[in-house]
Specification:
Helix content: 40-55%
CATH class of the largest domain: Alpha Beta
Largest sheet: 6 strands, parallel
Structural class: alpha/beta
CATH architecture of the largest domain: Alpha-Beta Barrel
Distance between the termini: 42 Å
CATH topology of the largest domain: TIM Barrel
Strand content: 5-15%
Low-confidence stretches: none
Radius of gyration: 20 Å
Number of domains: 2
Order of helices and strands: EHEHEHEHEHEHEEHHHH
Mean pLDDT: 90
Bound molecules: zinc ion
């Protein structure tokens, strides 16, 4: 994709793509493919959980993904960092699965999956992430979350990396992401000479330019996420009160503000 050589590449197994079909790969084959594309972090093959109350089927999926992760651990020769996939829609399952992998395999970190179907249930998502964070000091990745709203919340919860196609999907819906405000639908604005962003895409372009060009919109949206991340890191580096910063950051949206307040309470209970 033409990114600089020192860019860290995380390759997941594509689990979500075959969630409705049979798994069409093996843990060994996936490792090989990940190596061929030059990935630095290698996610293990997994089968995402279903949202509906399908406890028996979900339990089977948790166990199958755990076996796949252990097979990958056996096949892993130490090249690249192996990130074991962990699934569970309750904190106990997440904690037990992660500790089981830690005891029986050799992983450089863990990735929490099956978050997409429950992404609007902030309370649940927060609990599951904290359960994983508490169970390991190793690298923690979260699959499928990381848009402009989720990103600061994930950072606050101690997640080390995350992935999301939100910036692409937002561009597809003609949404222009503004850090601190969420998405702005471009068609609601009639006339504006300068864009409210100084990223390399926006600084010399007009609103009409960006409106017509979905690629630019996608790139700007990614820049918004990068700026949000940089700002968070700045606050940490400057020794600022992170909770006070996030309080301000989330205040613009009632739903996410409530999510942050809940997360804050859960974190307080742990410390
Ligand atoms: Zn921009």
């Amino acid at each position: 994709m033409g990114v600089p050589k020192d860019t860290v590449v995380f390759a997941d197994s594509g689990g979500f793509d075959f969630s409705d079909d049979e798994v069409d790969t093996t843990p060994e084959r996936t490792l090989e493919t990940q190596r061929e594309i030059g990935a630095d972090l290698l996610g293990t093959v997994d089968i995402p959980l279903l949202r509906e109350n399908r406890d028996a089927e979900n339990q089977r999926r948790v166990e199958q993904s755990t076996q796949y992760a252990l097979q990958a651990s056996d096949a892993h020769d130490g090249e690249g960092l192996l990130i074991g996939s962990v699934h569970g829609h309750d904190p106990e399952t997440v904690r037990n699965t992660l500790q089981y992998l830690e005891r029986h395999g050799d992983f450089d970190g863990y990735a929490l999956g099956s978050m997409v179907p429950i992404r609007t249930d902030y309370k649940k998502v927060t609990k599951l992430i904290l359960a994983a964070r508490q169970a390991t000091d190793k690298h923690l990745h979260v699959y499928g979350l990381g848009g402009i709203v989720y990103q600061p919340l994930l950072l606050y919860l101690g997640v080390d990396s995350f992935d999301s196609s939100a910036f692409i999907r937002s561009a597809g819906n003609r949404n222009y992401l503004l850090p601190g405000f969420g998405g702005q639908e471009l068609h609601t604005i009639e006339d504006l000479e300068y864009l409210p962003c100084s990223c390399p895409v926006c600084r010399d372009r007009t609103l009409d330019d960006i409106r017509e060009d979905r690629d630019s919109l996608t790139q700007h949206n990614l820049w918004s996420l990068a700026m949000e991340l940089r700002r968070f890191r700045y606050m940490v580096a400057a020794g600022e009160d992170i909770e006070a910063y996030l309080d301000l950051r989330f205040r613009g949206n009632e739903v996410t503000y409530r999510a942050f307040k809940q997360a804050k309470q859960q974190v307080r209970r742990l410390t």
